[in-house]
Design a protein that fits this description.
By secondary structure, this protein is mostly helical. It is built from 6 helices and no strands.
């Protein structure tokens, strides 16, 4: 989502100011809002260019499907960026979802503390 400077004074940031969590951003939202919409590319045209089924891009753009390494490589080639960019978006999204859903469980897990560990000598 692109925000113009002149739009900032009209935006409500109360959820952030009050410590509310922002929702994780699906890579499909980035693909749609930062690439397809501004460049006026349809999901169908992108799928043809990438030589993949239209349903794959459609599902990604509709945030129903993850970006795979195969798709990341194709997107990187087409848009002139890196597969790591696309995979990084996916990993960040997956980690945020997992962290949110597992938070109570993770809070109950005790960190491992080794017993009787002497410091290593540096000779």
């Amino acid at each position: 989502m692109t925000i113009r400077i002149e739009e900032l004074e009209h935006m409500d940031f109360s959820d952030v100011a009050e410590g509310g969590k922002l929702h994780p951003i699906h890579p499909g939202e980035i693909l749609r809002e930062e690439f397809l919409v501004p460049l006026k590319i349809t999901p169908h045209a992108l799928s043809l260019a990438l030589q993949i089924p239209a349903t794959r891009i459609n599902d990604i753009v509709l945030e129903r499907r993850a970006i795979t390494t195969d798709t990341a490589l194709r997107l990187a080639r087409y848009f002139g960026n890196t597969a790591e960019f696309w995979m990084g978006l996916q990993v960040d999204y997956d980690m945020a979802i997992a962290r949110n859903s597992l938070q109570d469980t993770l809070d109950r897990i005790q960190r491992f503390v080794p017993a009787n560990v002497s410091p290593r000598r540096s000779d």
